[in-house]
Amino acid sequence: MFLIFSFYDIRVWENIFPQRPFPEELFIAGKKYKGDEFSDDVERIFWRKQWRDVALNDWDYIGKSRFIYTEFMHPKAFHYYVPLLLYEALPGKDNLDLYDAVRALLPYKDDKGWWWLEYFSSFTREQRFFINKYIYGLNEIISDCNWEMYSTKKLILIAINKYWYID
């Protein structure tokens, strides 16, 4: 299966999601507050770091809430850093919650406003195809009768059917 072999090779991810150029903006205009501890932390953690170099405990420190991403982080910046979330959430790596990673591929509260449109349009066709295969692979791995993963499976099906399908 494509997921089992290709998705666990970080070099495949680096090829699909280049580490340069860095995003031009980290924050949504007007959302970085000088001297604000949260803004300073986000800037310290992400600004001018390659997506591979952001530590997972830093993601935990600021939180993996989609509210944080959609309210503070510029959509193109989130697009740049999201591959790390997806890679580290692969089954068996146990570094990150798969539920949170799949949520990062869906609009916050089903709002397809400017943030989602800019975020989604930042992905190249090749990246969208890759994410489509990633999601389909997750769907195949997670059993329908695995009740612990029921919520994640539900999100995966929404992602497949509503947002990340390839026509």
Care to describe what's here?
The protein is mainly α and 167 residues long. 56% of the residues lie in helices and 0% in strands. The protein contains 10 helices and no strands. It starts with a helix and ends with a helix. The model has no long low-confidence stretch (mean pLDDT 82).
Question: How are the SSEs placed, and which strands pair?
Answer:
Elements: H1 2-6, H2 10-16, H3 37-46, H4 56-62, H5 66-71, H6 75-88, H7 98-103, H8 114-121, H9 125-141, H10 150-163
Helix pairs in contact: 6-8, 9-10
Distance between the termini: 21 Å
Shape: globular
Low-confidence sequence ranges: none
How many distinct beta strands? 0
H and E string: HHHHHHHHHH
In percent, how helical is the residue content? 55-70%
Specify the structural class: mainly alpha
Cα-based radius of gyration, to the nearest Å = 16 Å
Largest pleated sheet: none
Work out the helix count.
Answer: 10
Strand content: under 5%
Could you report the average pLDDT, rounded to the nearest whole number? 82
